[in-house]
Amino acid sequence: MSDLMELTLRVWRQPGPDADGEMRTYTVADVSPDMSFLEVLDVLNEELAARGEEPVAFDHDCREGICGACSLVINGEPHGPQKRTTACQLHMRHFADGDVIDVEPWRAAAFPVVRDLVVDRGALDRIVGAGGYITAPTGSAPEAHATPVAKDAADEAFTAAACIGCGACVAACPNASAMLFTAAKIKHLNVLPQGRPEAGTRVLDMVAAMDAEDFGGCTNVGACATACPKGIPVDVITEMNRDWLKAAARSRKSGR
Amino acid sequence: MRTTIALKALMAVTGIVMLAFLVLHMLGNLKIFFGPEDFNAYSHWLRTLLIPFLHYGWFLWILRVVLVVSVVGHIGSAIVLTKRDRAARPVRYRHAPPASSTYATRTLRYGGAILALFVVFHILDLTTGDANPHFTEGHPYQNLTASFDRWYVAVFYMLAVVLLGLHVQHGLRSAARTLGVAAGRQRAFAALGTALAAVLTAGFLSVPVAVLAGAVS
Fold this sequence. Notes:
Chain B: The chain crosses the membrane at residues 7-27, 58-82, 103-124, 151-168, 189-216. Chain B: GO terms for molecular function: metal ion binding. Chain B: It holds the Pfam family Sdh_cyt. The structure holds two protein chains of two kinds. By secondary structure, chain A is an alpha+beta fold. Chain A is 34% helix and 13% strand. Chain A has eight helices and seven strands; from the N terminus they run E-E-H-E-E-E-E-E-H-H-H-H-H-H-H. In chain A, helix 5 (179-190) runs antiparallel to helix 6 and helix 6 crosses helix 8 (235-253). The longest helix of chain A is centred in the C-terminal third of the chain and has 19 residues, at 235-253. The chains are: A alpha+beta, B mainly alpha.
């Protein structure tokens, strides 16, 4: 086992939402290249618990790269240096023995720190709550082919629906803007026939909900799409802008 | 106008208005290479344009009003949005993120501020003449050469032109995205922005370079 690594982690520690935080340095020995980044934090936490110290709080759930819970900024990059990979699926073979690694929470006014590396991403839920759904009659499931969906619309919707809502786009954006997230959530419904009837109100309501949070605006830098672990294309923002401008003009005309 | 998208649309539209003006302004400047008569006649023509529909000089005044409204809208939305953007990340990352943007994108805000200062000087220098001791009303050719004979004015002008090129390079592409016309055509708009930036930079730079080199005097 000669390929085991010793790493120095500098981790953001903050006891509570209103407490001051700081970067604290820890050494983790015997790190296997096959471990995930979260497993390194698990090992660190076991050592901290054994020493009677508070373990590092961090979000995680499925550890399969699909739930969007993990939210670590590793060396300045949301989810770390590996493209299209969440922190839970980031393996230590991408690091080298002796590396010093900085671990920080998502940094945004809209994502207040709860503790250490855990932030409150409720702002994203409130955006979805403003229109990230369709209105449909309840009851038994409709027949599957009752509403035909064009193949290209299905593909586009699926690309946008791949968003796991982790918030890496906000963390990466120099303005902490949630445009990529909001645009993906709008698009995945607006391109489908089931989402069309409410397309106009959806874009107006969800953008209004986004602006009501403390997010910044888009300066078309593209850092969001680069950081996105699911490869949501930056084009969805352009389409949201177009849909919003059209819907805003229409709603002004109809006096709504 | 509380939503970021409306403010950005305002910035995009006003930017495109000013960009269209700059293309015409640059083409007009090139008349300097045909000599003082042509250049001064062109300047006079701008004042007599659309007479008798308009009165003498009105065309220029209408243009100035449109430009002032555009400048105010552009800078105003920039200030509001920049404040919002800064407030959105109160705590910075200790480990600086890798550069995800181009040089043109990063210099947009400060470059824009320097450009605004340049425009003030430019008007005092060549329109009102307050910053040009050899200024004579109605002789733009002589005013221009007298101004660029001061090397530091020529250098400031050239710096502003380079910043303008960078501003347009990011700006047009960004405006196309903001107005929603670039979906699926990002590359085409990026290429158009870069081409326009290059043409504007070269066209505007040619005049002070020619004066400094003695080709125009």
